[in-house]
Structures are given as structure tokens and as C-alpha cells.
Design goal:
Strand order of the largest sheet: 1-4-3-2-5
CATH superfamily: 2,3-Dihydroxybiphenyl 1,2-Dioxygenase, domain 1
CATH class: Alpha Beta
CATH architecture: Roll
Number of strands: 5
Helix content: 10-25%
Number of domains: 1
Structural class: alpha+beta
Largest sheet: 5 strands, mixed
Shape: globular
Length: about 100
């Protein structure tokens, strides 16, 4: 997925300010697929950082060769978090990369 914005595409006052891409997210359908991708990247020397388990997702970050931040995400099954929406939205636990 890529995103490209030019100032002509932005509404009113936003068009006067330079905009940048914050980050791109790639979601994996299963936790196994997410872990497999992390293992694949680590084995090839890709530096990973910012692993966070949230109430709804598990994520880890990397920087692509152009300096863009990429977040790899796995959404947890709904039944694990739907009973506690506050925790699902406001929980963030930093985890070691290799865990």
C-alpha cells in the first residue's frame, strides 16, 4: 500500500502546511503469519523496534529503505477484547523484540 498526497489534494488550511506520511500498516490475518514475517525479517538482518501489545492488536515496527516507518500488525480475535473496550483501546504493553 502506498499513499501519495500533494498540496492540491488537501482541504483549505491543510494545503498550506507540508504533510508527510506518518507510517504504513500491514496487517496479518493470523498470529502465526505475523510471527513468521518477524522471523523472516530478523533472519535477514532487518532491524525491528517498537513491539507493542495493545488490547486489540500486537504490532512491531521497522523502517523501510526510504526511511518510512512500517508497522506490522496482527489483530487479536474479537472475543479476547470485546468485553473490555476501555482496555482494548487504552492498553499498551511494550514487549522485547524477540519475545
Amino acid at each position: 500500500m502506498t499513499s501519495h498526497w500533494s498540496s492540491e489534494m488537501l482541504p483549505g488550511d491543510l494545503a498550506e502546511r507540508p504533510q508527510t506520511l506518518n507510517h504504513v500498516v500491514t496487517e496479518y490475518a493470523t498470529q502465526e503469519a505475523w510471527h513468521k514475517q518477524i522471523t523472516f525479517l530478523t533472519a535477514r538482518g532487518v532491524a525491528l523496534y517498537g513491539r507493542v501489545d495493545r488490547g486489540v492488536t500486537h504490532s512491531i515496527h521497522l523502517t523501510d529503505p526510504n526511511g518510512n516507518e512500517v508497522e506490522l500488525v496482527h489483530e487479536l480475535p474479537r472475543e479476547l477484547w470485546e468485553g473490555d473496550i476501555d482496555a482494548a483501546l487504552n492498553r499498551a504493553v511494550k514487549r522485547p523484540i524477540g519475545e
